[in-house]
Design brief:
The structure is a homodimer.
Chain A: H1 8-34, H2 37-44, H3 48-55, H4 58-66, H5 78-92, H6 97-105, H7 110-129, H8 136-156, H9 160-163, H10 167-182
Chain B binds a DNA duplex through helix 1 and helix 3.
DNA sequence: GTCTATAAAGGGATAGAC
DNA sequence: GTCTATCCCTTTATAGAC
């Protein structure tokens, strides 16, 4: 009793974690519809019924899998906003499984779509606050969708033309485009 | 016999067309997995078995639904390439159902993913041929994914921030960004 | 040619044994 | 607390009647 290797609660916590990790990976790879409870259980090496026991249903499992902490970012200025977006590219080229899972299903699963919209809207707000000019909100939205397109093309569609470039090359090529949007337009 | 209102072949052609139109709309709206043969048949007001009779299986129905004519575009110069891309925005804000159907499923359906990759690669090649500079291919890829992100955000996710802007505003705000990519970089 | 009936499979969910 | 067994629904696909 002096060395209770693992308490029940602890064991349970670990099993739950294993299931969630497996779920994230499969949702990220195949999307909501093509991911089965059975497959998740198989990958986590637990019984399918246990997955239901822990998460209730597939929808809640998905909800837990795509939930993640989001760091709050302070508003600054146009140049900083550009560099901030470019900086996320390092992250975006190896997105956390939770984000990938959400992105993979955002076009075909209602809840994932909602989460994606909310997340993108927050980013638009954040960037927008750092930009000058009348149409800051639209330009911020364009900057955000540019990053979205890049992520989709690179991470989800795995386009060769992007895969064969280094992060630095992409950042360097993209910077002038984002700068053009960050500056109040001459249009 | 002088007025055969509709030949068998003609009737069949029309029914097939009705099925395809219904399929495109549903695939565009819900994606491959969430679209059922039954729903397609219902929308086209035919028997589900008839859909199978005509198209064999769901996969082939999808294949026919997303197939579409693609106009060949001549290569020109950087400015023309930019204006060409911006010009497609008019189209992209009301994409043909076949394209929408393909895009909707591109992240979760293997065949749609392949079609999307091929289509994007063609566009990269086309734009790339019009650009000067060492890294024309990468810059063309970025321009293409920018348009992809915009389409996804606007048409599929229906982001408010984009929806509330007019085509002209978007074009005007986006032009400098694309121009920055079209010019051989100072990076 | 079109529809009825049904086969066959897959997978989410549940009850209850251990 | 974990697993066995199974239910039951949905959906694709087929066989054969009309």
């Amino acid at each position: 009793m002096t060395e209770p290797a693992l308490t029940r609660a602890e064991r349970r916590r670990r099993t739950e974690r294993r299931i969630l990790d497996a779920a994230r990976e499969l949702f990220a790879e195949r999307g909501f519809e093509r991911t089965t409870i059975r497959a998740v259980a198989g990958a986590a090496e637990v019984d399918p019924a246990l997955v239901m026991q822990y998460f209730g249903n597939k929808q809640r499992l998905f909800g837990e899998a795509v939930r993640m902490a989001r760091p709050a970012e302070p508003a600054t200025g146009p140049d900083e906003a550009v560099e901030h977006l470019l900086g996320t590219l390092g992250v975006k080229m190896r997105l956390p499984p939770a984000s990938l899972a959400m992105l993979r299903s955002m076009l075909t699963h209602p809840e994932a779509a909602t989460t994606a919209r909310e997340s993108l809207s927050r980013q638009v707000e954040h960037v927008s606050a750092s930009l000058p000019g009348e149409d800051a909100r639209l330009r911020a939205a364009l900057m955000t969708t540019i990053m979205l397109g890049l992520t989709v093309g690179h991470q989800l569609l795995e386009l060769e033309e992007l895969r064969e470039a280094s992060r630095e090359e992409i950042v360097a090529a993209l910077r002038p485009a984002l700068r053009a949007l960050a500056a109040p337009g001459t249009h």
